[in-house]
Amino acid sequence: MFARPTSLRATDVAIRIGIVGLALATGYIHSTLGGLLFTLNAVGYVVGAIAMVIPLALAVRFRWAIRLGLMGYAATTIIGWAIQGPYYSTAYLAKGIEVALIVLLAIDFVRMDGNPVTVVRRELSSLFALVTRRSGRVGAAA
Amino acid sequence: MKRLTLTLGLVALAAVLAACSGTSAAPATPAGPADPDAPVVTAKDLAFSPTEVTVPAGAPFQLVLDNQESAPHNIAISDSTGASVFKGEIVTNQKVTYQVPALAAGAYPFICEVHPDMNGTITAE
Lengths: 142, 125
Prior knowledge:
The structure holds two protein chains of two kinds.
Chain A: H1 10-31, H2 36-53, H3 57-61, H4 63-84, H5 89-112, H6 116-141
Chain B: H1 2-20, E1 40-44, E2 47-49, E3 52-55, E4 61-67, E5 76-78, E6 84-87, E7 95-100, E8 106-111, E9 119-124
């Protein structure tokens, strides 16, 4: 269930701390705004921050997806704000934090997983192989 | 790789610094004597009260927003076409007096820009 401890370099640890800190910071800002939408947004950031560091084997295996998901989540939040506003100091601060979060996640992705296109191709081929194997088993049983 | 990491790191730092230097786009509360008869709109539990406000038409007027909660609120007034006619400063746990420009006779919807579900109508007559 739990992943074996991995040895991260000091830079990687610092980047990971930065990601968690920024995600919690923007999550906190959203939690202070009131209303269901902002509260759910805050919860999403907290869940993302936890998923980035939790030592569960499943989370470690799919950390690349968590990175991409959190980047997409932050980007969606920024786009939603750009469309609807409001434009004031706290919002600018939150968006600045989210841009920084996306950049740090991109750095972390490149350092940990490499080229995103290669990662997605590799995962798709793994999935395809899994599906093929299962259909083969079902065919043999029939 | 190190150069890319450094560059992206600097971009992230710049984004945070730029965000920290952001300023409010909304107009500030005007200086000057407050009108004791100015209508007061209270913001509490993510709702305005009252939601119907009557003001004199054709003359600038003061409008007080009494935000009684920690969530940020303001009053943004638009005309019947949806065009913005006034945007008040966003405040938290604070009473603020807005100086609103003259409105022609008619009904003007107002909302909180942070929480567009909070709304009401200003009638100028």
